[in-house]
Structure formats: C-alpha cells, structure tokens
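COMPLEX REQUEST
Ligand: zinc ion
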Amino acid sequence: MESIVRDLEKLLKIPSPTGNTHKAIDFVEELFNNLGLKTAKTVKGALVATIEGKNKDKEVTLSAHVDTLGAMVKEIKENGRLKIAQLGGYVWNTIEGEHVHIETLCGKTYTGTIMTTKASSHVHGEGTKTIERNAENLEIRIDEKVLSHDDVINLGINVGDFVHFDPRTVVTESGFIKSRHLDDKAGVISLIAIARHLVNNNIMPNFTTNFFISTYEEVGHGAAASIPNKTFEFIAVDMAAPGEGQTSDEFSVTIAAKDSSGPYDYDLRKRLINLAKENSINYKIDIYPYYGSDGSAALRSGYDFKVGLIGPGVDASHSFERTHIEAIENTIKLGIAYLTN
Ligand SMILES: [Zn+2]
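STATUS: Structure written out below.
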C-alpha cells in the first residue's frame, strides 16, 4: 500500500481542474506505461489503458476521473482583486481562506488567497461574520504589488485563467489521507493499483480490460464518449459519500445501488456484493441522494452496457475531504476480484 499512497500524494499535488487536466493525464499515462500497458488518448483528452484478457471478443471498462473542482478568473476588479467562477459544484464557504495558484495563458503561475471582501474583523466588525459567501463576495488577493485592474493585466493574468486550489495533502500515522480532490484521484490510483496487481502477478483478466481515465466528470460529460466499443460492462470507480443517513464509511468500498441518475445494474450489483462476501472485502451498499457518476454520463449518452458504481468512502466530499487507506485497499480488492472471477 505504501507505493500506492506515494503515487496518490503525487497525483493529488498535480493541478487538474476540469478543462485543464493534461499534466495529471500525462502522469497517469506514465504509471500505466511503466506497467507495460498500452495507452491511447481520446480526442477530448481522456486516457484509455488496456490490458489483454482471456476473452478478447468482449471487453470490460473501469473508469475513474482525474479532473477536480477548481475555478477560473471571472473578472479583474478595479482594486486589483479577482472575482472567480466555479468549475464543478461546491459550496463557496469550502474554499474561503484557500491558497491558490493562478495559471496564465502562457503558463506562468501566481499565488494568492481566496477571501471575502470583508475579511478583516478590525475593519468590518460584524460584517466579517455576516457577509454571504458567494461569487459576488469572494475574491482572490494576488501575492503581487497590484492595486488596479491594469496592474493585474500587466502580470499577464486574464479572464478565463485557471485557478488551482491547494490540495493540502496530509497522510497521517493513523492511515488517514486528508486532501482536496480525493474525489476521484483515490479512484484513479485504485485503478492503477489493480493494473499493477494483474501485471506483477502475471494474471490475465477474464476479459480484455480498459482503464478509462476521464477528464470532464465534474461537469457531467466525462465518460459520455469514446468508451472502447466492445465494452459490455462498465464500472465507474468513484468516491462514496459517508454522512448522516448513509451506510458508507472511510474504511470500506461502497457498492452503489442508486444515485440521483437512477439505479445501477441489478445483476452487476449482486455479483459485486457476492464477490465482496467471498473475498472478505469490507463493503457497504448505499444510495446517494445528490450524485451522478461517469456511469450515469455513459448511459445518458446512449451506451448499451451494464453499469456499476463502486468506490472508497470519502468524508466531506467536495469540501475538506478525507479517506482512510483501508477504503482504497478494499476498492482495489473488489476491482481485482471482479476482473479475475
Ligand atoms: Zn467524483
């Protein structure tokens, strides 16, 4: 598990907000290539790594998404601060105080901090507390001598520049991984670990297997195109959501029965549950009230295959996320059991 956590830490630290994912995709491609897997990129930038199976006429595809939440410069204000637009869905207060990188079109980066327009309690008193956290009232303070709109333009910063949030990755002695973007980089690393297990142990999966690393999941169309066409079963590996009323936790793999997009394939769910039982894998069955996956995106775009959703429990998703190594381990085990039984 140690090298898996090391790879995960590296991946978490590579900025990859939806729409600007090539560096993370290149990193993941290298990991697959190092295992000897053939890889190809789709036109819109997703990665497909393939491992040959005993049956080559039918294929299975496991997906995970490398794109994350982020932001874009929406407006350069007269006082030299930046308004931002969201990439992906999150609540504004989860990014207040966050350190960011602003990436200009020519690739230069500047640092800054996201704060409300009434950040100092010595200046704004009660207003500091009551100001609503929204697009209007949050801004980036750039760490440069900029006092006007033109000062910012002169740095090369412009509307549309990507804003990366500091992932704040910490691995604790007790086995927790605290970081932004565990959704779904924990899933991506699980797929790499599954591939590594097969390669290192000379195991041929039952069917030719594709690992599909998508790049637009957070905006809903990640796996909507270019899934290898012999695919008859598709499993999205994405974070599970623990919390009030949920069965998921940070130590198990969750097998989703349903999310907002509807039920996952019943036959496939039963098979995954049986595999978890037979292999003593800690698992939960859960329903997510506000959730859609790359499996949902694929089905909605018209693909005709069975779709399942599994993944490690990630606490406080789209906020200050945390999971435990055991959840990733259980996800990897279930993926291996699915491909080899
Ligand atoms: Zn996700």
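REMARKS: The radius of gyration is 21 Å. The pocket of zinc ion is lined by residues 65, 183-184, 217, 238-239 (CB under 6 Å).
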